[in-house]
Amino acid sequence: MARTSAIQNKMMLLVLIPLVLWIGAFELLPIIRMIFMSFQDDAGQGFTLGQYVESFASPLYRQSIVNSIKISFFSSGVAMLIAIICAYSITRFTTKLRDRMLMISNMITNFVGVPLAFAYMILLGGNGAFMVMARELGWDLLAGFDLYSGSGLLLTYIYYQTPLSILLVYPIYYAIRSEWKEAASLLGASTWNFWRYIGLPVMLPGLLGTFSILMANSLGAYATAYALTGINYNLLTIRIAALVSGDIFPNFQLGSALAVILAVIMLISLFINEQMSRWSRRRGL
Amino acid sequence: MKTVAANGKRKAGGKRWHVAVIVVLLIYLFLPIVGTLLFSLAKEWQDEIFPNSYTLEWYAQLLADMRFYEAIGRTVLVSVLTVAITLTIMIPVIFVLHVYFPNGEKLLQISIMLPFAFPPVVSAIGLIKIYSSGPLAITGTVWILIAVYFVLIQPFIYQSVRNSLNTINAIDLVEAAEVLGAGKMTAFRKVVLPNILPGTLVASLLSFSMIFGEFVMSRMLVGGDYETIQMFLYNQMKTSGQSASAVVITYFLLILLLSGLVLKLGSWKPRGYKKAALQEEE
Amino acid sequence: MSFVQVEHVMKSYGEVPVLKDISFSVEEGEFLTLLGPSGCGKSTLLRAIAGLNDIDSGKMFIGGRDITSLSPKDRQVGMVFQSYALFPNMSVFDNIAFGLKMGKMKKAEYTPLVEQMIEIIDLKGKENYYPNQLSGGQQQRVALGRSLVKRPKVLLLDEPLSALDAKIRRSLRNEIRQLQRKLNMTTIFVTHDQEEALTVSDRIIVMNNGEIEQQGTSEEIYTLPGTEFVARFIGSYNVWSRPEMEQAGFADIPSGDLFAIRPEVISIVPQAAVAAHDAGYMYTIGYMKHYAILGNVVRYHVDIGGLDASVDVLNDSGLLHLRENEAVRLAIPMEKCQPLKKLG
């Protein structure tokens, strides 16, 4: 019987071993360890829900959760809006220009974290070019603006979410076939009707999926906020990092509990994304 | 005829709108970079809309700084090692699962999802706890970075290698090679590997730019002990703003270079592909 | 023992059986076709012979040698895939030379063989082209040459023509057949296209649901279908049961419960011309419904007591004047009324 080849086939699975060990050691084990720690008391003993209780009870940590969700939600929303407008305009051009725009977007997605924070300081920091310009022109709009506050941080988040969002929204437009537009207009639908009854419903799962990816992307972000405001602005990731690597006394147990909370929020986002892409797949898109 | 004219007019108006959108988008995206560039070239830039005089002094200073070269060297080293190790481990796995055990690909799907669900800040906690002491105390060294960057880039390597395998119809190619007398290893080496090379190179370059931009892990797990380019930039930012802006521009040029290479390689085909004057039969 | 011998081969995917106790043989130099709808197991069977699929039980022999547990590279078979599976990084020359190189042949030895093969498949001058510079038909010729150059004992063709358009498909299938005759190459060909099977094969095995329904020459399969499945799959047979035919008004029906009657053996006699009752014919009255012109024949659909009878008539008989609902007489020679085994 074909026994020999079966054994040979099983042998091939040996190539999996390094990967499994690596992922186990540097991905799974740390996660398990973290979950484990989140149920221990401050001394690293016993089993307690105390860290979770503190996470939600303490105004500081509760605020960090709220802030994180808020900044992610708004930055994702605004970036989506920009992308919906811009990606559509991009689809209206020749292939060459489209590719170029996508390449630029892809390149700018790397402009995040420390370099981004720094560039924004140059433009909108205390003596930034725009602030000086606003002062000299006497604009009040920017007078009260503080880059190192929540609204400043929001601006940087919107900036780095925008190119990613364009990259994700652009293919969704391609699900809309021009035949549908033609068929709809022959049936008497206006452009507005087309988008209202066909275009938007078709794109909706994709757009919601994109939104949840953007949410996850910004919820886990740390570098930009840290580079811009240090530990002064109260975000979940900033709190976690401060608790485990700050100069003050580290508290891994509390940090772990916050990290688990963050991971759960991210998993929910990714779960929504998965549901959305299933939804579009069911429609054969 | 009237409708055609009206249509044409509306189209022209639409076109103008789209051009305007793209221009505004480009300005928005490039403004921070242009600002940084001006700052890096300015003699000084305080309380003015545009700098008064320009200089290359900051670049000269940067290029004379050994610490800068060391930081770049460390980052290059860590990315080359990580990408090489990741490719060596991942490509055979993806190939074997894709061609011989398609059901096993689910396993990989899980392992590539994990880094998305557990961002660096989160997974760093467990890593610090496990690898700061005990038998494998590697925090503060290059090894912990290679270990975690592997986890970060493997989803991208997986996606692109799998796409390449799909595009070349790897399963059929391997079967054809086997029927023609090639062993499994030979089929992999002679038939599959050369054909997935372009896609794999692209993924490697994307991985490079990811590692060059990574800050969180290098701050939390090694800090000053192994100063990567991002850590160098962060430290520079706190001391001298203008020389930091020169670092940012250098970093951006590097990204530009990598993106250009990706674009070139993306359309790269094996020998002879270019002059594809398709000969029709009969 | 025949040249290729397949004995009691069984295979299932989980609980689903795909090959149920398959046995057949192929003579040396014979062109055998495995014909059946998609999912009938024909490709699985071919891949099992190539060694690309495991089987659960059974034995396979080529030239008297038991190949059941050999790996594909040791079976000395050649195979052509539906997707061609040409190596995109290799030129036409290198694709064809690949198998010979794997056989540890030296460049000086294989070069003349490869050049000769390139001539046979009529691609001289294109040695250095890459697969994506060739048309589909040319690519498939390279795939064919690549398999033949090793002089395999058996050539396996897995739907090699189905990705090509109709015209090239017809010319390439004739080329394959000629080449096969010239080299006296034992060939097993898998297809779902009955026309293709009938034109090229020495012998056809019709498969359905992992089982062999019938085997025989093209002529036998076409004129003497043994089962309802074969009759329906092979062509536009009228398949009628005895009660249906009785209700349609036929008398003197031969013995049997189920019959297959080819459209071209039925003749239409206008009702007005009262013909004599010839012995050996069955007659009934029906009403013309509609017709379609299929090139050199016209297919009429006639309603006979609720049954739809397809009747093919040469496109020069002037019957086109028949109007809808006009009454016609149908005559069927009794000997052409092929009794079938019941479905099962």
TrEMBL record, chain B:
* CDD domains, per the entry: TM_PBP2
Would I find Kinase among this entry's keywords?
no
In its UniProt record, which GO terms are filed under biological process?
transmembrane transport
Q: Which residue ranges run through the membrane?
A: 20-42, 76-100, 112-131, 137-158, 192-212, 244-265
Which Pfam families does this UniProt record tie to the protein? BPD_transp_1
One cellular component GO annotation, for this chain's record?
plasma membrane
Give the matching SUPFAM superfamilies. Answer: MetI-like (SSF161098)
Record keywords: Cell inner membrane, Cell membrane, Membrane, Transmembrane, Transmembrane helix, Transport
Q: Membrane topology per the record? A: Multi-pass membrane protein
Where is this protein found?
Answer: Cell inner membrane; Cell membrane
Per the record, the domain of life is Bacteria
Q: Which InterPro entries match?
A: MetI-like, MetI-like_sf
- Tagged with keyword Glycoprotein: no
Please report the stretch or stretches of sequence annotated as the ABC transmembrane type-1 domain: 72-262
Family classification = Belongs to the binding-protein-dependent transport system permease family.
**Name of this protein:** ABC transporter permease
Which organism does this record belong to? Paenibacillus darwinianus
From TrEMBL, chain C:
* Annotated InterPro entries: AAA+_ATPase, ABC_SmlMolc_Importer, ABC_transporter-like_ATP-bd, ABC_transporter-like_CS, Mo/tungstate-bd_C_term_dom, P-loop_NTPase, Transp-assoc_OB_typ2
Task: Give the record's keywords alphabetically.
Answer: ATP-binding, Nucleotide-binding, Transport
Q: Which residues cross the membrane?
A: none
Query: GO CC terms on record?
Result: ATP-binding cassette (ABC) transporter complex
Provide an example Pfam family for this protein: TOBE_2
Q: Which residues form the ABC transporter domain?
A: 4-234
Q: Name one GO molecular function term.
A: ATP hydrolysis activity
SMART domains linked: AAA
The protein's name: ABC transporter ATP-binding protein
